[in-house]
Amino acid sequence: MGGLIRSSIARKVAMALSGLFLVFFLLQHFTINFTSVFSADIFNELSHFMGTNPLVQFVLQPILIFGVIFHFIMGFVLELKNKNARAVKYAKYNGAANASWMSRNMIYSGLVVLAFLGLHFYDFWVPEMVYKYVEFAPEDPTRYYTELLHRFESPVRTGLYALSFVFLALHLWHGFASSFQSVGFNNKYSTGATKFAKAFSIVIPVGFIIVAIVLHFKH
Amino acid sequence: MNLTLKIWRQKDAKSKGKMVDYQISGIEGDMSFLEMLDVLNEDLIAKGEEPVVFDHDCREGICGSCSLQINGEPHGPDRLITTCQLHMRMFNDGDTIYIEPFRAKAFPVIKDLMVDRSAFDRIQHAGGYISVNTSGNTIDANAIPVNKENADDAFAAATCIGCGACVAACKNASAMLFTSAKVSQFALLPQGQVEASERVLAMVNQMDEEGFGNCTNTGACEIECPKGISLENIARMNREYLSASLKG
């Protein structure tokens, strides 16, 4: 088991599993966000549940934060190790001839998503933590939708969110399907799973963009 | 055909190399890439200059000796061939061709375009074999029934010639395709299953120790492999490795 932690394959599998976990979280996040498009009440109810349920707040939320931190730290570590594996660069390297842009630039699409997460935490998570655990303000189950609309008031903010989701789609396009290969699932049965992953990589980020734009114009 | 060649020249393993430009003329489309380099070397020798050193042996795509990163791709722009099988008709008159060694920290340059690929040998030595008692009572391999699909997959994996194009193509200089082919060719057969766990652990461990990069599933190796070794082998090795590690 000791060798497992140091091995390149174990790192690859850890990257895949943390990525799959984040994909699952994205689906859950999108489902709740999407309700805001057609019903303020359902959105408020779900947000109130997520914001006050102790299991979500004190177990799932820390696991999620750990998952995000683990995924990006491991991403950086792998990038540095991989750069080091070819000390002298090619004078001419035709990467586009044999691999997609998405697969070759995961670190850059990942960095944009990471920067977006900083903005997103600043917009939602930090004020939420201050509201609940610093100011100890009284819980108002109807506040979530209003706060959400307020955040998407600015066209610049809405644009930044939409742009970030484009990079999320690029990141997912390679990352999601690639995670199957990493955990050893590549055979005649994996074709369907790969197609699902590719569809998910487009549908979910586009869905997030639609939600952001709809909320902007609802204001 | 008149060409401009930009070739990596490096005196020895310790020297710092650089790209050097050469003009070459009279190249026919039917010549192989290595024949074109032979013509260049004859010119250089006639001029009293040091010829360009490059690896080659069988010149028929079997031995895995020839290498070369040509215009940014291992074994050049054509598919499913080695450099010795690459014809000059793939290029046009007036083209500039970049010729570099396969680059990886684990493949140090010996001289010019020749690199030391003995890291692959050490991976193979770590477990790429089966232990058989050969003292006169060896059982005929054909006496053991093998499922046709597995036999075909094992054979396809065994066609890997160990040229190193997978490492050269990978943006991370990862040797996963080579190692996985060597793991798979045994893992798929009953004769190889006896030592499957020890084999995959030892070979992956050696691969990591040699300083190859991590696989990020770009798939460049599969595209550039002259023998078309499939990425399925890497998935199989991942499964084998995980199951062997968890067994302890």
Automatic annotation (TrEMBL), chain A:
<feature type="transmembrane region" description="Helical">
    <location>
        <begin position="158"/>
        <end position="176"/>
    </location>
</feature>
<dbReference type="InterPro" id="IPR011138">
    <property type="entry name" value="Cytochrome_b-558"/>
</dbReference>
<feature type="transmembrane region" description="Helical">
    <location>
        <begin position="196"/>
        <end position="217"/>
    </location>
</feature>
<protein>
    <submittedName>
        <fullName>Succinate dehydrogenase cytochrome b subunit</fullName>
    </submittedName>
</protein>
<dbReference type="GO" id="GO:0016020">
    <property type="term" value="C:membrane"/>
</dbReference>
<feature type="transmembrane region" description="Helical">
    <location>
        <begin position="55"/>
        <end position="80"/>
    </location>
</feature>
<feature type="transmembrane region" description="Helical">
    <location>
        <begin position="101"/>
        <end position="122"/>
    </location>
</feature>
<keyword id="KW-0812">Transmembrane</keyword>
<dbReference type="InterPro" id="IPR034804">
    <property type="entry name" value="SQR/QFR_C/D"/>
</dbReference>
<keyword id="KW-0472">Membrane</keyword>
<keyword id="KW-1133">Transmembrane helix</keyword>
Automatic annotation (TrEMBL), chain B:
<dbReference type="Pfam" id="PF13183">
    <property type="entry name" value="Fer4_8"/>
</dbReference>
<dbReference type="InterPro" id="IPR009051">
    <property type="entry name" value="Helical_ferredxn"/>
</dbReference>
<dbReference type="InterPro" id="IPR017896">
    <property type="entry name" value="4Fe4S_Fe-S-bd"/>
</dbReference>
<feature type="domain" description="4Fe-4S ferredoxin-type">
    <location>
        <begin position="151"/>
        <end position="181"/>
    </location>
</feature>
<dbReference type="GO" id="GO:0022904">
    <property type="term" value="P:respiratory electron transport chain"/>
</dbReference>
<dbReference type="InterPro" id="IPR036010">
    <property type="entry name" value="2Fe-2S_ferredoxin-like_sf"/>
</dbReference>
<dbReference type="GO" id="GO:0051537">
    <property type="term" value="F:2 iron, 2 sulfur cluster binding"/>
</dbReference>
<comment type="similarity">
    <text>Belongs to the succinate dehydrogenase/fumarate reductase iron-sulfur protein family.</text>
</comment>
<dbReference type="Pfam" id="PF13085">
    <property type="entry name" value="Fer2_3"/>
</dbReference>
<dbReference type="InterPro" id="IPR025192">
    <property type="entry name" value="Succ_DH/fum_Rdtase_N"/>
</dbReference>
<protein>
    <submittedName>
        <fullName>Succinate dehydrogenase/fumarate reductase iron-sulfur subunit</fullName>
    </submittedName>
</protein>
<dbReference type="InterPro" id="IPR006058">
    <property type="entry name" value="2Fe2S_fd_BS"/>
</dbReference>
<dbReference type="GO" id="GO:0009060">
    <property type="term" value="P:aerobic respiration"/>
</dbReference>
<dbReference type="InterPro" id="IPR050573">
    <property type="entry name" value="SDH/FRD_Iron-Sulfur"/>
</dbReference>
<dbReference type="GO" id="GO:0009055">
    <property type="term" value="F:electron transfer activity"/>
</dbReference>
<dbReference type="InterPro" id="IPR012675">
    <property type="entry name" value="Beta-grasp_dom_sf"/>
</dbReference>
